[in-house]
Q: What sequence folds into this?
């Protein structure tokens, strides 16, 4: 036992030593959005597109694959082959005897493996597996599988910055630190939020830090955003001359060494807005390779009645053209989110176009379609070399995030093994196969399922408490990220119109939806009256049972954030606030992360989260549910009653006794008639 | 032929010999003086009588202000004094006993009294009413005490003298204390329990009433006695029928009363009508005195004794009744003209254990205002649907205040009415049932004057509800014994229709106010008392209960074709609120003044009942034909 532990520690240290020190960064498949993927059956393949960053020094980097094979495979006749850019680079027998039965495969990378666009490496994992010597016995044996873990990673070295031509967006992605002015205004907040959202696209798990600067600060390795007049003096001194009405985005090396500062600024408010708007235009920031950009024009792209996408091709859903080969079940999983929609669609049709190898006499083939693991369609593929058809998907099977699996299941005729077997193959055309959405179901009860779709479908305003502005850049970034997460990639980052709570009125919100980031005591909240599921300007308790005992209370969490979604008039509101006054930024960010990543379809309209969203609670609190009670609601009479009820009972009993004797006396007196 | 004033009246043209014979026959049958028969059976007006005596040299003396030597009076029996209308005043000091007599010319009486007192007798004339007043005042003590205490002596368990027994008081107060203690310990749950219990009870009560009403509706068109059967009755075969008319300060109604009695289709000589007047009620007495047409009733003066209640007066009247059957009417009542014959006919048809028949009551001034309309709806529902329904279930029937017809001997056997009970009728209904006799329902209506004034209505209703409380307390002193007497079905029926009635009215505003506070103000603190499931049940009960009650009241209009009242049934929830006010008043009086008789003022209506009666009778007849 002791020796095993020592071995484990040594292994851990060696891994850390190998990758932690030598390589600048590790980027896992999980960071790139992949799940653990499996190959089942006697043969199969998985394809990955590994995303690269401009500064990645591919020649000196490695691919570390973690493959876990079934422990019953015959290792002499089971092997995995890794191909990079369709070139086999590594083959190994599947050996499950390693520690925790995970095989670690190291493949040194080379530039020749990078796709022509320079942004991806195409990796294919082929497996041929067997358990017994008899090929036919292994067909359809569920014990035959391998899994490629998403903890597999690229161990990357950084190349010298000068050796790579950065676009402006890539430059931004190099940073993980954003500084907004101490006395930030709405523009600073928006700018900070946009930058945060852009950096978040890096899909790195590294935390993005936001902070505030003053004029006297010296900063480095950060993106600094602000009006020219607010910038630190030493930054101002290094900026080129710009005119009123002009904005600037510039990557500086203010100290003459490797430390950088990216400045997003404007000579005046107008210029600053132009710079901010430019950040939202992917076309510009992807195609600008200069370290300096002076901006004369910048048009904002507000959320405004974005038409709902009706047809998604599987390619748009992230599918890649892929030949599935083998026998048994050949599956491809397409994940799609309903984030674009504010409700479940009324009708969803899956148009599938696929080609397949012709089945011989006696062979059997089926095409199955699964929605969220429910079989929704099955057909016989006999005598077919292609399949074209529309499949109705039941809306009630949908959740916010869904998986659509297309499976081709091939079974050879009885004697196929003896005659020598050639794999079946199938191909799903991801360009012509599509999902077609028709209409939306009417919302009766507004809840987080409606987010973010509801806020994209009409003009959107962010209403912010002035006192919170400097602290909310990260929250703003999270919201902008979530609101811009759409199935079909846009050329623009859409942004909301911004207003402070002291200047906002309900009248101005006509024809808008609104996200309100507010202090719990902000007077603006009064506008909501009883529409708010939880009146959080008072201490409150949830699920107070009828006997007056509190079974669950959340009013003590000082740094919790709370988000509530509801409809008032024609406007849908998402109101976010912190329940306490400390760690406000964390409270906001935590709750935004929580409701933004809610994968379940539970209809919740209130979310309370703390510890930066690690602990969160969702509640369904319909109007007048009586679940919420407020500490202040206990009136004086109730307090008196609770404190003195037994005294009151005693008094009443005394009164009763007196009444008893009084009535008795009266009764006796009435009999005196005799 | 013995000489009396009436013989002389023939001479002056006031009488015919034929009429005198008729009078003498009556006098003989009833054992009355001729003059009493003449004055009380509609042969002679008191004005004619007085002026005749005056002319004959017998001016009336004011006997009420004479000095009376009671030693002579004490030698006389009240029944005789009342029947022969004389009163010994005093000895004139010369050996002659001066006696006041209604007929100072009655030689037979004079000679009888001379033998009785063994002295010379000198008659002076006095008003028959004054003599009646005096003889009852001086010699009525025994009878009035009997009226008050007879039941208590014979059947103390059925007497309402003791309002609350000590165990009852202890039980009630312990129940309240226990409820308070439970509410203190767990207010919400206990409140919800009570709330559900009572609202469930309400719904059950209303459903049960609907069931009985629907059961009663089967008898809607059934005639227990048909007109053909009445036609076949020979007048000669009819027995003497006593009608008790307990009145108090009803001077305005005396004329109406006479006309109503005259319209009764029953041989005049066989109607033993007793107008029961309290000793202090000179108003009514004078109204009778001043009538300018012959009266068709006998006046009985009830001597003062507490409690001053209608049942006490009736009990007193019982001593002087001559009939085989007896009924009670209020002064303003307009019974169907053939009601008495119907009753006689029905009694003959029914088994012997039927000793009471209840006639339907309704109102002639139903369209006067909202209150009279509601009252009419209530009575129509009660008498036309509930009573027949109850009769078919064989449970105790709370009798109505008037138009209940008794077999007199059985009534006496039961001990008459409880003088301490202000709803003596409901109480008697139960006692009839306890003795295993039965109450029937007769298809005849008596029209009354509906209370048209809210305060008067509340006074009347508070008495009724107080009476129900009294009746409950009396008969529930020993519930086990009650069950053994009347069985579970009777026990349930009694509690349902008598005991729970006041409880329902007491609780109604409490529950209603909770609902209203909750529904209108949406108070959060009240909300905890109405969790969703309780709320749904409560709202269902509230809506279903009120709707059914309205429906039952709507049902009530059908028999009598009072379709114009149907929408007023919607006001039933408000009408119930008035009941609740009356219930609280009644509860207070039960403790403070249990035997106080809240007098209902009659004659407030501005509706001429004759026109209304004609219309109503026509409507009923049409309805019956259909």
A:
């Amino acid at each position: 036992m002791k020796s095993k532990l020592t071995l484990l520690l040594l292994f851990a240290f060696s891994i850390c030593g190998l990758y932690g020190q030598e390589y600048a960064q590790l980027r896992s498949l999980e960071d790139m959005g992949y799940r653990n993927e499996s190959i089942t059956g006697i043969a199969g393949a998985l394809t990955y597109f590994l995303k690269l960053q401009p500064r990645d020094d591919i020649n000196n980097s490695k691919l570390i694959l973690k493959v876990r094979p079934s422990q019953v495979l015959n290792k002499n006749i089971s092997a995995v082959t890794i191909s990079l850019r369709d070139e086999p680079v590594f083959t190994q027998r599947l050996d499950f005897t390693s520690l925790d039965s995970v095989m670690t495969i190291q493949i040194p990378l080379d530039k020749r493996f990078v796709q022509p666009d320079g942004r991806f490496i195409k990796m294919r994992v082929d497996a041929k597996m067997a358990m017994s010597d008899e090929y036919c016995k292994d067909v359809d044996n569920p014990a035959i599988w391998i899994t490629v873990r998403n903890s597999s990673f690229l161990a990357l070295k950084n190349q010298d910055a000068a050796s790579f031509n950065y676009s402006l967006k890539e430059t931004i992605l190099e940073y993980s630190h954003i500084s907004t002015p101490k006395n930030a205004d709405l523009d600073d907040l928006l700018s900070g939020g946009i930058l945060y959202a852009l950096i978040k696209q890096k899909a790195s798990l590294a935390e993005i830090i936001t902070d505030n600067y003053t004029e006297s600060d010296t900063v480095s390795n950060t993106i600094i955003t602000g009006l020219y007049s607010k910038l630190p003096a030493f930054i101002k001194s290094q900026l080129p001359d710009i005119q009123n009405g002009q904005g600037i985005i510039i990557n500086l090396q203010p100290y003459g060494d490797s430390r950088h500062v990216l400045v997003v600024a404007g000579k005046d408010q107008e210029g600053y807005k132009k710079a901010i708007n430019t950040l939202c235009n992917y076309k510009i920031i992807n195609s600008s390779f200069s370290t300096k950009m002076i901006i004369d024009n910048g048009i904002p792209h507000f959320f405004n009645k974005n038409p709902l996408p009706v047809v998604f091709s599987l390619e748009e859903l992230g599918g890649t053209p892929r030949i599935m080969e083998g026998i048994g079940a050949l599956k491809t999983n397409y994940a799609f989110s309903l984030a674009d929609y504010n409700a479940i669609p009324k009708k969803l049709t899956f148009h599938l176009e696929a080609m397949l190898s012709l089945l011989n006499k006696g062979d059997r083939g089926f095409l199955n379609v699964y929605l969220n693991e429910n079989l929704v369609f099955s057909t016989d593929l006999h005598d077919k070399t292609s399949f074209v058809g529309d499949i109705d998907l039941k809306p009630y099977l949908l959740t916010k995030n869904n998986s659509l699996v297309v499976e081709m299941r091939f079974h050879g005729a009885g004697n196929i093994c003896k005659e020598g077997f050639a794999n079946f193959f199938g191909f799903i055309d991801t360009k012509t196969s599509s999902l077609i959405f028709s209409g939306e179901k009417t919302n009766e009860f507004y809840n987080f399922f409606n987010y973010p779709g509801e806020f994209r479908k009409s003009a959107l305003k962010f209403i912010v408490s002035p006192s919170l502005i400097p602290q909310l850049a990260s929250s703003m970034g999270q919201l902008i990220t979530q609101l811009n997460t759409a199935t079909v990639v846009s050329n623009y980052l859409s942004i909301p119109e911004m207003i402070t709570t002291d200047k906002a009125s309900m009248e101005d919100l006509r024809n808008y939806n609104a996200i309100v980031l507010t202090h719990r005591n902000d007077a603006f909240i009064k506008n909501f009256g009883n529409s708010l599921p939880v009146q959080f300007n008072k201490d409150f308790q949830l699920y107070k049972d009828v006997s007056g005992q509190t079974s669950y209370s959340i009013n003590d969490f000082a740094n919790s954030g709370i988000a509530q979604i509801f409809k008032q008039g024609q406007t849908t509101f998402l109101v976010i606030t912190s329940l306490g006054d400390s760690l406000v930024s964390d409270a906001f960010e935590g709750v935004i992360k929580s409701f933004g990543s809610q994968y379940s379809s539970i209809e919740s309209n209130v979310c309370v989260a703390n510890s930066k969203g690690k602990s969160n609670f969702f509640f369904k609190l319909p109007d007048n549910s009586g679940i919420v009670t407020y500490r202040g609601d206990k009136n004086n009479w109730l307090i008196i009653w609770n404190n003195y009820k037994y005294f009151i009972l005693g008094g009443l009993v005394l009164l009763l006794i007196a009444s008893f004797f009084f009535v008795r006396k009266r009764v006796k007196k009435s009999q005196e008639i005799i | 032929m013995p000489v009396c004033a009436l013989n002389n009246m023939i001479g002056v043209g006031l009488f015919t010999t034929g009429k005198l014979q008729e009078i003498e026959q009556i006098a003989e049958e009833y054992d009355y003086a001729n003059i009493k028969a003449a004055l009380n059976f509609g042969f002679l007006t008191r004005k004619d009588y007085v002026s005749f005596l005056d002319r004959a040299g017998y001016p009336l003396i004011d006997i009420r202000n004479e000095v009376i030597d009671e030693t002579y009076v004490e030698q006389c029996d009240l029944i005789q004094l009342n029947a022969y209308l004389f009163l010994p005043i005093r000895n004139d000091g010369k050996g002659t006993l001066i006696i006041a007599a209604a007929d100072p010319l009655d030689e037979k009486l004079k000679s009888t009294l001379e033998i009785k007192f063994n002295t010379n007798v000198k008659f002076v004339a006095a008003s028959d009413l004054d003599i009646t007043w005096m003889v009852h005042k001086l010699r009525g003590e025994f009878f009035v005490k009997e009226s008050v205490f007879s039941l208590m002596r014979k059947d103390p368990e059925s007497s309402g003298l003791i309002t609350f027994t000590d165990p009852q008081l202890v039980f009630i107060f312990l129940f309240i204390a226990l409820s308070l203690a439970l509410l203190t310990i767990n207010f919400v749950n206990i409140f919800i329990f009570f709330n559900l219990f009572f609202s469930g009870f309400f719904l059950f009560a209303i459903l049960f009433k609907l069931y009985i009403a629907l059961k009663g509706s089967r008898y809607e068109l059934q005639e227990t006695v048909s007109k053909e059967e009445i036609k076949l009755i020979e007048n000669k075969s009819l027995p003497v029928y006593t009608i008790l008319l307990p009145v108090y300060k009803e001077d305005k109604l005396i004329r109406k009363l006479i006309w109503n009695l005259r319209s009764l289709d029953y041989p005049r000589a066989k109607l033993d009508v007793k107008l029961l007047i309290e000793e202090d009620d000179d108003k009514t007495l004078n109204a009778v005195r001043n009538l300018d047409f012959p009266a068709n009733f006998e006046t009985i003066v009830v001597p003062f004794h507490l409690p001053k209640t209608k049942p006490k007066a009736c009990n007193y009247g019982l001593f002087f009744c001559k009939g085989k059957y007896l009924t009670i009417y209020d002064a303003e009542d307009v019974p169907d003209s053939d009601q008495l014959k119907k009753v006689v006919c029905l009694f003959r048809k029914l088994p012997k254990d039927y000793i009471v028949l209840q006639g339907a009551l309704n109102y002639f001034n139903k369209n006067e205002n909202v209150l009279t309309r509601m009252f009419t709806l209530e009575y129509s529902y009660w008498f036309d649907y509930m009573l027949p329904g109850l009769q078919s279930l064989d449970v105790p029937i709370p009798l109505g205040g008037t138009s209940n017809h008794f077999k007199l001997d059985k009534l006496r056997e039961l001990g008459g009415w409880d003088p301490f009970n202000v709803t003596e009728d409901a109480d008697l209904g139960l006692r009839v049932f306890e003795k295993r006799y039965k109450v029937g329902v007769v298809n005849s209506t008596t029209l009354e004057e509906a209370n048209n004034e809210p305060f008067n209505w509340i006074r009347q209703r508070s008495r009724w509800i107080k009476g129900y409380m009294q009746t409950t307390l009396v008969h529930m002193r020993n519930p086990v014994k009650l069950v053994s007497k009347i069985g579970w079905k009777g026990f349930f029926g009694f509690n349902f229709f008598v005991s729970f009635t006041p409880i329902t009215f007491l609780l109604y505003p409490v529950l209603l106010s909770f609902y209203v506070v909750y529904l209108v103000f949406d108070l959060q603190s009240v909300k905890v008392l109405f969790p969703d499931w309780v709320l749904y049940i409560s709202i269902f009960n509230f809506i279903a209960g009120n709707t059914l009650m309205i429906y039952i009241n709507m049902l009530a209009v059908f028999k009598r074709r009072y379709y114009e009242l149907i929408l007023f049934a919607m006001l039933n929830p408000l009408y119930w609120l008035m009941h609740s006010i009356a219930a609280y008043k009644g509860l207070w009086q039960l403790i403070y003044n249990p035997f106080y008789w809240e007098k209902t003022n009659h004659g407030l209506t501005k509706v001429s009942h004759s026109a209304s009666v004609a219309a109503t009778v026509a409507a009923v007849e049409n309805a019956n034909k259909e």
Chain B has a mean pLDDT of 84. Chain B touches chain A at residues 148-149, 161-164, 166, 169-170, 173, 176-177, 180-181, 184, 186, 188-189, 192, 306-307, 522, 524-525, 527-528, 531-532, 591-595 (CB under 8 Å).
